[in-house]
Amino acid sequence: MPEATTDPHLPARAQVVIIGGGVIGTSVAYHLTKLGWTDVLLIEQGRLSSGTTWHAAGLVGQLRASESGTRLVQYSTRLYAELEAEVGLSTGYKRCGGVTVARTEDRMTQLRRTAASADAYGLECTLLTPDEARERYPVMQVDDLVGGIWLPGDATANPTDLTQALAKGARQRGARIVEKVRVLDVLLDATGSATRVRTDAGDVEADVVVNCAGQWAKQVGAMAGVTVPLHSAEHFYVVTEPFAGVSPDLPILRDPDGYTYFKEEVGGLVVGGFEPEAKPWVSPDQIPYPFEFQLLDEDWEHFSVLMESALLRIPALRETGIRKFYNGPESFTPDNQFILGLAPGTRNFYVGAGFNSVGIASAGGAGKALAEWIVAGEPTSDLTAVDIRRFARFNGNNRWLRDRVGEVLGLHYEISWPNREMRTARPFRRSPLHHVHEASNASFGSRMGWERPNFFAPPGSSPAITYTWAKPDWLPWVAAEHANTRSNVTVFDQTSFSKYLVVGPDAERALQWLCTGNVAVRPGRTVYTGLLNARGTYESDVTVTRLAPDEYLVVSSAATTERDQDHLRRNLPDGSAVAVVDVTSSYAVLGVMGPRSRDLLSRLTGADLSGTAFPFGTSREIDLGHATVRATRITYVGELGWELSVPTEFAVGVHEDLMAAGADLGVAGGGYYAIESLRLEKGYRAFGRELTPDYTPVDAGLLFACKLRTDIPFLGRDAVEKARAAGPRRKLVSFTVGDSDAMLWGGELVLRDGVPAGQVTSASWGATVGAAVGLAYLWDPIGRPIDAEWVRSGTYEVAVGADLLPVSVSLRPVVDPDGLRIKA
Questions:
Q1: How far, CA to CA in Å, does 204 sit from each of 19, 322, 366, 482, 486?
Q2: Are residues 148 and 182 in the same domain?
Q3: Is residue 809 within 8 Å of residue 734, measured between CB atoms?
Q4: Confidence of residue 5 (pLDDT cuts 50, 70, 90)
Q5: Residue spans of beta strands (DSSP E) within 293-407
Q6: Could you give phi then psi for residue 250, rounded to 5 degrees?
Q7: Is 444 inside a domain boundary?
Q8: Residues 139-177: tens digit of each pLDDT
Q9: Does residue 293 sit in the same domain as residue 340?
Q10: What sequence ranges are listed for the domain FAD dependent oxidoreductase (predicted)?
Q11: Has residue 426 been placed in a domain?
């Protein structure tokens, strides 16, 4: 193994201290120095690459589930190809291409979707027949295959060599790397700033601390009071003896239906995979020290599911010896996405960890993204999917993590069903109405740990979600909830909404700066608004209700509780006398939606709910049965309705009253699948899909929610005005599919006049229009700004599996474009 090559003596201080000398830590150091921050100290408790990095398989597959994730890996491939020329050390980077094969029609549909995504992102990808796949990979048998894809940009790299090359590049620009020094503590001051790193070789003062400690990142995070939810699992592969037909230019082969991958190594094959049920390792708090360049015991019984599949795919392996069995622990996160970013509650403690077996492919792009975040003070691209703020403290429970990680590892090669729900470590957080929904045959989904009804199955039917690319068996039940909302009244349990109070004498001033909308309204009014960053792109979208001159209620999506609060607190105007208080768990929320919602509520309250007395955007406390609730006239489904904020302990009683009083009005329960289809018919945007840190209000068509006609400054205003003047490079549109038999899920490629020119962000079956509907971003293939006329002048299709289906595109909602229903 490599010898230590750096001075073991620690400096008294450094601008940045990076904890962990794997491929992620060295990448962050490399990119910080490339950005001009040269006073960088990297501390490694063993030797560089000695933790998880050294036994990684080294696969570099470019295509990811999102555009932002794909761009990160694309950067990695460019960096690895060029790094040797810069630093004089090989990274072992080899562009060999990749073949992925399908044993089933469902898998082939996924691969067709993969190819369509590649078209959207400008990556080369070719669909293959089984015989064409064998031409690319001659030692494979293909009799049981349906087809495959070819990704010529896929590659491999040598993890240890890559780490050493990144480290050398960092050193050349001034970084200092110290090995064989163990971090014992991270000390914070009263403001939440990490000021000192304590090691077994002395203390180091720091302006910024970066936790890239791999499997140990949870322990290091705890030193700073930061939750880093990850847990290790045993991860297996073998290296075979050389055999005929294997050459150095053999591509990577992935057989996800058999859970396996293959790559060439010295004339033989690395055979590994991601078994459906993984084997968690020890608790994150019990990882042994030292644990340097070590492996765990062989477990041929557990590996047998992978080996049997490998023997089927590569028959020659039956006559080939095994040279080495690798069982190396790797850390996995609860949702199979890595963790990146500035930890909430701190001012300068960053995390880059939990890479779920894609650390080598991701390291270049992730290290660059985190370094840019550190230097700029905020992300420079859309990192929502990997942002540490998607987790809360409760996600750090080790027993919960252990139960979850056994499922997460297998997700790598499971079909990526668009509505797949995690099975393990559930139920977790429960609404006070959970037992009521359970008795009503609800099918539950999970968001930020909340158990939420996706739909209600009829009595005697199974509420289990069936996964399919076609129309699922539960679609008629969701369509009935959808139709009931359009014609009668539906009660939705939306307790999982995030809810914050912004209170203090400077509450209005603070929110005017943070919000795109004008929140200087009288108490009892609700404003829909975006929260932007300095680049003028979305950090969230929320509703803000003024409760009193010095108090506002902010309501947001379930997934963004930690993210929103962190964004609000970090961006308060200097000197603001204001506090942000999380009251999410204090209130249940019941959405009472539909043209008969006023009739239903009026049976339970003495309040005047007429359009004159209680217009859209009004919020006030009312009596409702025996309870007192806050009723806010607003909607996310495009119908007359109210969101009722109910103290948690009154939720069951209020729900009982609503269902009893509305029996003759057609009242029924509804789930989140119906909310999704209803909001898409109305063209309502969702954060994380239509609204992300890559899009401005100009792109999203939400300038009406920006106070640009006033002279009131807000965060991101300058960037929004520049974007408006330049014109959008992407434009959000509503669409309806012409084929009523088609089912869309989001992510599909959009073609304009036969040329790839967009991608669906969200899609569902629209029961009102009798066809699939959704939202999509369009762009000009040659990069010009686009306008309404450009949109209207095109002919559009969407790629659904192997078919291209015509779609009608509109800049207005496909249902009730004038909003007459919500104003009734």
A1: 12, 47, 26, 60, 63
A2: no
A3: yes
A4: very low
A5: 322-332, 339-342, 349-353
A6: -65, 135
A7: no
A8: 999 999 999 999 999 999 999 999 999 999 999 999 999
A9: no
A10: 16-373
A11: no
